[in-house]
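B., you asked whether I could sanity-check this one before it goes into the benchmark set. Here's the sequence:
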Amino acid sequence: MNITEKKEEIIKTLQQTDDEKLIDDMYELLYTEQAFEEFELNDLPDSLQQKLNRALEDYKSGNYITHEQMKEKIKSWGVSY
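And here's what the prediction gave me:
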């Protein structure tokens, strides 16, 4: 299946589904940063809000490692899981 066929299949599936979880998951996948920005922190304690804001800034600036990178780092420590 080529890329055009895949895109058409995805669009068709999304247009025909009533599965809210599927639509929410696709939205999060496509608009991850926007989902973070829409997240309300007001109900959390101030200290936690500050930590989450720092983490969000780190994410936006690219200051993070992926799960795969972390697994490799752990392997380099000689730890297996």
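One thing to flag: The two ends are 36 Å apart (CA to CA). Otherwise nothing jumped out at me.
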